[in-house]
User: Which sequence fits this backbone?
């Protein structure tokens, strides 16, 4: 088996963590869970490398691993090519409070922190809360007001943790607009731009256009007032600037 690079994706919910995980999944050398061990992390049972061994990761779901009640088709397909994967990890949006433990347990790990403007994040929270029901995992009280608090906290956690170069802040609004950011992410992870991930990215561009055209605004005047009063837009701007500086550094390094 090739030497392993740990990769983890986090960020405030509804900030593109799932889209980014699916994008990386399309790379033939990546094994990426989507909240495979989310419940374990949230219950303070910190993640350890043994959870990412082939059989445990792809086939052996144990109660308490995740809110997902089964392993879907991806893990069966992944099992067949797992030994060729050089990069393995999980997408857990609220991993950001646990950077210290993750760094200790996964030496050399790299983290993608997804950053998105508060307004679409809050709108998505609100839509999810309005659609909540017995068949859905999203609770009705996790709404557009709660979103602002979670958004602020995620940024506070990542800003405090950016003491080394193992965190890449990814501006989700750029991800499917130009392949420059895709190349930057792959460079950060030391992955090649393969035909598979390039094709998946192009599909993502088309899908994003369709989704953006259908998004409905569910934020009331009270939601917007709460955003104006409580959203830490200065910190958001600082992280955007950090993302731009990281992009500039990676571009310079490739020359």
Assistant:
């Amino acid at each position: 088996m090739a030497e392993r690079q740990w990769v983890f994706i986090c960020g405030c919910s509804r900030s593109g963590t799932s889209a980014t995980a699916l994008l990386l999944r399309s790379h033939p050398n990546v094994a990426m869970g989507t909240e495979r061990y989310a419940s374990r992390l949230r219950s303070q049972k910190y993640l350890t490398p043994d959870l990412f061994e082939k059989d445990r990761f792809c086939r052996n779901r144990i109660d308490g691993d995740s809110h997902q009640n089964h392993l879907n088709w991806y893990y069966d397909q992944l099992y067949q090519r797992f030994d060729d994967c050089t990069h393995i990890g999980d997408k857990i949006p609220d991993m950001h409070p646990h950077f210290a433990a993750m760094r200790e347990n996964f030496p050399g790990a790299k983290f993608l922190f997804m950053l998105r403007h508060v307004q679409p994040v809050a709108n998505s929270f609100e839509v999810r809360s309005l659609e909540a029901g017995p068949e859905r995992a999203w609770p009705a009280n996790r709404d557009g007001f709660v979103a602002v608090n979670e958004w602020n906290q995620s940024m506070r956690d990542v800003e405090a943790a950016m003491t080394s170069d193992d965190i890449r802040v990814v501006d989700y609004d750029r991800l499917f607009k130009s392949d420059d950011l895709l190349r930057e992410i792959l460079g950060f992870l030391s992955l090649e731009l393969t035909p598979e991930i390039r094709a998946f990215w192009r599909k993502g561009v088309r899908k994003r256009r369709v989704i953006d055209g259908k998004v409905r605004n569910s934020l009331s005047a009270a939601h917007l007032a709460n955003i104006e009063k409580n959203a830490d837009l200065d910190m958001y701007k600082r992280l955007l600037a950090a993302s731009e500086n990281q992009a500039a550094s990676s571009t310079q390094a490739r020359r």
